[in-house]
Specification:
Blueprint: E1 10-13, H1 19-29, E2 33-38, H2 58-65, E3 69-72, H3 78-89, E4 93-96, H4 102-105, H5 110-116, E5 121-126, H6 141-148, H7 167-190, E6 194-199, H8 200-205, H9 209-217, E7 235-239, E8 245-249, H10 253-262, H11 279-290, H12 294-300, E9 308-310, H13 314-319, H14 321-326, E10 329-331, E11 336-338, E12 356-358, H15 360-367
Parallel strand pairs: 1-2, 1-4, 2-3, 3-12, 4-5, 5-6
Antiparallel strand pairs: 7-8, 8-9, 10-11
Helix pairs in contact: 1-7
Length: about 375
């Protein structure tokens, strides 16, 4: 089945690389008609492999742009601007991810957009937002996470570690979609559009409420020093014999007790709340896990309600029965589609249509 929650909603997408295209793909998954407008040479992602740094990112481009129609046009030309204005007049949403000021230089400042289409919802998804001392700077996911304070408490005790996937890019996409959906509802009530300023740095800062509250409460975070970032024996990644890794997330007393009993260490139960970081207990639990291989631990903890899960690589993950039954991962010829992670009335959505390239005339005929 396919979602049709946004059936009839028309989205123009001027974004590039990952955050904006991911946002517009989610809107397409919900039923919106998305036309992605690219420069004549295409999205620069096509020329950059995001995993190897090589010159070919075509497969990754397909993975985040499936489900959309792509129109390549030069917005710096009179013909391009005229065609884009015609599309804007009939759009419900405009998503762009340029640096602040670029849209104005192209002739599409917020007041111009409002004059062209008073009901238009314009979402500007940028790194640092439309104002502030860093608003004009370039940046990427790792920079936005660093600014939030979150990177300072992620990683090993010795050094911060950048995570995967790019979390600020994804939070930016999610918050852009949330804001657009709310604005669409508001427009239905008021008949007025709105200009949304969504900064990826802000969206990652929005995840820092607990860490910042810890500062106020006198429980400042340190890398591998707190309950949820490696300071507790009951909530950590452990190595097992043979080079594999497992996770234990036994935060609640019943889960920790179940683990300790299954592992033959009932004497550890009372130590769950030793002062953090629990260096001595962590050493003991680590030694226990390291003494046996993954097969042993999968067998020993099978059916034990203790929040245990082996660390899977991508091959193992897509083959896992839980992942397979949810039907979200679809293998295409040269890339993988991970569908909108929502089951509607008990069913996963159908696969997305591949990227479709259309002309300006086709676009106008489609929307006018």
């Amino acid at each position: 089945m396919a979602a049709d929650f946004l059936g009839g909603i028309r989205v123009l997408d001027l974004s590039q690389y990952l955050p904006g295209p991911l946002a517009s793909q989610m809107l397409a998954d919900m039923g919106a008609d998305v036309i992605k407008v690219e420069p004549p040479q295409g999205d620069p992602l096509m020329a950059m492999d995001p995993l190897t740094g090589g010159p070919d990112g075509d497969a990754y481009y397909k993975a985040v742009n499936a489900g959309k129609s792509v129109l390549r046009m030069d917005l710096k030309s009179a013909q391009g601007r005229e065609g884009f204005e015609a599309l804007l007049a009939n759009a419900d949403v405009l998503l762009e991810s340029y640096r602040p000021g670029v849209m104005a230089r192209l002739g599409f400042a917020p007041d111009v957009l409002k004059a062209l289409n008073p009901k238009l919802i314009c979402c500007a998804l940028s790194g640092y937002g439309q104002h502030g001392p860093k608003s004009g700077e370039g940046g990427h996911d790792i920079n936005y996470i660093a600014l939030s304070g979150g990177l300072s408490v992620s990683g090993t005790a010795e050094t911060p570690v950048a995570g995967w996937p790019p979390a600020a890019d994804h939070t930016g996409a999610l918050n852009a979609v949330n804001a657009i959906l709310a604005a669409l509802i508001g427009c239905q009530r008021t008949g007025k559009g709105v200009y949304l300023d969504v900064a990826m740095a802000d969206t990652f800062m929005a995840w820092q409420a607990w860490g910042l509250t810890g500062q106020v409460q006198g429980s400042a975070m340190t890398r591998q020093g707190n309950l949820l970032n490696g300071g507790a024996a009951c909530y950590r990644v452990y190595a097992v014999a043979g080079g594999d890794f497992v996770t234990l997330g036994a935060l609640e007393a019943k889960f920790w007790a179940n683990f300790c009993n299954a592992a033959g260490r009932p004497n550890w139960i009372a130590r769950q709340h030793d002062p953090l970081p629990q260096e001595d207990l962590i050493v003991e639990v680590a030694a226990l896990f390291a003494a046996d291989d993954l097969e042993y631990w999968e067998s020993t903890l099978a059916g034990v309600d203790c929040c245990y899960q082996a660390v899977l690589d991508y091959h193992q993950a897509v083959a896992h029965p839980q992942v397979k039954i949810r039907k979200l991962v679809r293998k295409e010829d040269d890339h993988v589609q991970v569908l909108w992670p929502v089951h509607v009335d008990g069913e996963a959505l159908d696969g997305r249509q591949p990227v479709t390239h259309i002309t300006l005339n086709q676009s106008l005929k489609k929307w006018l």
